[in-house]
Structures are given as structure tokens and as C-alpha cells.
Amino acid sequence: MAEPLLCVEHVSKRFGGLLALDRVSFSADVGRITALIGPNGAGKTTLFSIIAGSLRPSQGRIIYDGVNIEDEPPHRRARRGVARTFQIAQPFAGLTVRENIAVGAHLSRPARAEALAAAGDVAHEVGLGDMLDRPAATLTVAGRKRVELARALAIAPRLLLLDEALAGLNPSEIRDMAPVIGAIRDRGIAIVMIEHVMQAVMSLAKHVFVLSEGRIITEGTPDAIAADRHVVEAYLGRGAASRMMAGGGGRA
Amino acid sequence: MKGLAAILGAVALLGIVPLLTVSNVVLNFLVLVFLIALVGQGWNLLGGYGGQYSFGHSAFFGTGAYVTAVLQVRYGVNAWLGFGLGMVGGALVGAAIGALSFRSGLKGSYFALVTLAFAEVLRIVASVAPITGAGVGILIPLDLRPEALQFQSRAPFYWIALALVVMSLLLARAIEASRFGAYLIAVRENEDAAEALGVNATAVKFKAMTISAAITAAAGCFYAQYFLFVDAGIAYGSWISIEALLAPIIGGVGTVFGPLLGALIVKTLGELGKLATGDAPGLDLVIYGCVLILVVAVAPRGISGILSDFRYRFLSPRPPSPGAAASAALERDNG
Q1: Chain B neighbors of A112, CB-CB under 8 A
Q2: B224-239: per-residue pLDDT in tens?
Q3: CATH architecture of A1-81+157-252
Q4: Domain boundaries, chain A
Q5: Closest Cα partner for B164 from B153, B185, B149?
Q6: Record: contact A103-B183, CB cut-off 8 A
Q7: How many CB pairs under 8 A join A and B?
Q8: pTM (2 decimals)?
Q9: Rounded CA gap, A212 and A231, in Å?
Q10: How many whole angstroms separate alpha carbon B89 and alpha carbon B67?
Q11: ipTM for the predicted complex
């Protein structure tokens, strides 16, 4: 397959007078992790919502597996294999962990017993095996993020959109989670992650897109991105890169 | 399987009542309890499991009652057939209101208000349209033959009402254990998250509304046959919409037995209140209001919630973990 699994082509999104996304082009492919970084308010989550279908683009196309999907509702895209997690984890609070994951597993398994069994398998995969019968509402942030991930995995996705799956976790929880995400990639799933935890981006992502004020300002390997002056300026303000070079980074 | 045993036990217990007593007061009281339990179960499927709170279930109850009565009186249709068509009519009204409100994305209080508005429109139309007997209402002529769905004694009516309630309990239980039920609950808990997992929330709500309306319409059909009289205030009045949501909320929303438990409590308190004060008009509503405030404040998950908390605390071998959701989950396991 020459074409990547997901191609976002010249997508713009306008909220009234605000241009949240400005002709964004972006791609992701199976078996690798693509990171989407950028300062707060850059439009990262908006882009995710447009890919997953909860928002419609004002302009542009989303091509998934060779098909234009920008007019499809979210549930149909999920059936095609597009899964997403939410930045603020949204567990079905009144249900147990197993029941939460089973909702995703039901997509390809009409029978309740099968879906519950499959939910158990997925839970073990993401390290929730011993919490299956806990109510989702009683989990910690790290637990909720795992439920979020497990639910998305349960629909057997081909494209997984992770919206800050590591945010709010402590360093040891991040260390636990990173290999889980790596293992998902190795199963041949295309992963796109929005992430602020740079340590994770550096170690996991193969390709990084930087979004700032609604535009992709640059893209490349994690190492190239870290050295890019546009990226530094996007985060720290215009002129920051040259000041840092001049002052040796002494006064930040 | 515990849920099934509980249903069978309840049936056996309630089924022998007419053999033990010939008191019309007792039977009449229980028939009304069943009627409210049925209406409540209809509401519960949409409101309890699906989280879509309707204030206008009288639209379905009334349609069931009117279709049954009008078909018999004006068109000479057999009462049993009329009963079935009444349910179909109610389901169609539910489907129409569901399609209109869910497709336009109405949620929460907006949905509640729209259902209320539809019920009111139907009430006003029924109170002026000639086919429904306008303000006078429709009297179904006395014809005490089983073929006409009328009986000499109350016992057959009692068993029919009980059978309807049992069917609604079995249906609720089957839905709980199905993919449709899982999707319905997921939509209640978080619609966006459900859609991201491939759930067509609009379709799920629409389906729930149609089933809910059919069940509630069955209660309306039964009402018409039992009292042989329907008018706009009875059929489409807000009283039935209130009882429809009161019973499950007091008994426990989103549980199989909640509506039946709630109907028993609501009707018992209503009757006791009437006895104590000599049938003061509107007193039952005052009592309902007080009970509702009490339940919402003290036991938001209703009587079923209290019972499952009790079971969880004293009868469960599992280590207790805090939080209402814990016992909610347990309740579903056992329910």
C-alpha cells in the first residue's frame, strides 16, 4: 500500500470568526507512531475530533484507507476502524471496567458473553487485568486512561488516536504505559498521539508534526524537531530561539 | 439466573392472590399497581437505561387507550385485536416523537420539554376531535365476554395485568443482557464516548423510545378495557406521565424491578393517605411529591439501590469498596 492509511488534506476548521485549523495536511500509517505536538490552543484536539468525526471540517478532505470519510458520523468511522481516546478520560462511570471495555468489544461481537470475555482479554493487555470488576468511577486518573485506551482497542482499530494518553500520569506510570503503546504499534496499528510529555514523544514517535495557531509549522523526526527554531518559538514566543542561541540559554 | 428466579418468585406470589381473596378492593388495588408498574417499566427502558427523561409518556398511554376504544366503538374491531393495534399505535407515536427529537439532537431537559409538549398537543386535539369523542370521551359498551376482553370477575383482568408486567420484566432483563442494552446504558453514561466506540446513539435512542412507547401503550389499552371509559384528561393527562417516572425513580431507575417496587410503594402510600384523610382530592400528589423529595435526597438510586447496598454490605463475600457505583455494578450482576 503506497498511500498511508490516513491522509488529512488541506483541512480547515472555522468556529465563527476563529480559524482553528488552517489548511492542515497530515498523514499517519500503520506500524508507526506519529506524534502531534504544539502549544495549548494550537488546534490539536480539534484536528482529532475532525478525524474521528465529532466535528466536520469547514474545508478539506480526510482520506482513510483510500476512502473519503469527512462526511461520515463518528460511529461509522469507528466501524471502519478509527478509534480515539479523549483528553479528559470519559469512562462510563456507572459501569465496571469490564463493562466499559465490553461496549467497545460489542462492535464486532453481538453476544454479551463474548463481548465480556473479549473485554477481559483487552484489559489484561493494557494492565487492567486485576481491576475488571471495579467500578470505573473508583479508578485513579492512570486507571481511567487505561480504561479509555482499552475501550478504544476493543473495537479492533486500525487507526488509534490518543489524545494525551500520558497527561496527568506520574513518571513511573508513564514508564509503565509507554511499552503498552509500543506493543499496540507493533500489532500493525497506526497510532497518532497528541502529547505534551516530550520524553515519551522522543522515545516512541517516528514522525512528529508540530501544530501552532492552526497550522502545521514543521514536521520531521523527533530529533530534528527538537532542534527546530520554529518549534522553540512556537512554545516560547517569537525571538526566543535567537535569544537562547545568543545567551547560551542562560536566562530563560 | 438470579434475576429470573426473582421474577418467577414474584409471579408465583402475586399470581395466587386472586385465589386467596375475593375482595375487589384488594384486586383493584393490585391491578392499578400493575398498571403503573407497566407504564413505569416503559418509562424505565428509555429513562432508566437510556437516560432520556420523558415528561410526556401519557402520549403513548393515551394513544394505546384511544386506539383500543375508538377501533372497537367506531369500527367494530375485536377488542383483543384493538389491544394489539393500540400497542402498535403507541409505538408509532413513540417512533415519530423519537425520530423528530433525537434527530434534531435534543437532550436532557429539552427532550423532556418536547415530550411534554407533544403529550399536551395530543391531549388538546383529543379533547376537541370528534373521533375521540371530544370533551365527552368514549364509553366502551359493556359486553362481558372473554372474546370482547371483558370479564365477569376481576381475577382474569388481574392475571392479564400481571402477565403484562411479567413480560415487561422479562423484556427489561433480556435487554440488560444484550448488546442493545449495553449500548443504551453507554449512551446514558456518555453519548460522545459511546459514539466513538461505534454506537449509533441516535438509532439506539430511537429504538428504545419505540419499545418504551409500545409498553406504555399496552398499559393504556389495558386501562381502556378495564374501566371501559377514556377521555382526554385520563388518556393524555399529566397524571400518567408523572406516575410513569415516579414509580421507577422511587423503585430504582435502570433496574428490572424498580418500576414494580416503586408502583407498589407509590400506590400504597396514595391509598393510605386517602384512607387517613377521607379522600381529599390531590392528596396523593402531595404524598408523591414528598416521597420523591425524600428518595432523591436520601436514596438517589431508589429502593433497589437501598436493597443492593444492604446485600452488598451484609450478604456479599466480596471485600467492600466505597462508592455508589460499586453497588450499582453489583446490582446489575444480581439484578
Answers
A1: 177-179, 182
A2: 999 999 999 999 998 8
A3: 3-Layer(aba) Sandwich (3.40)
A4: 1-81+157-252, 85-156
A5: B149
A6: yes
A7: 102
A8: 0.88
A9: 9
A10: 7
A11: 0.88
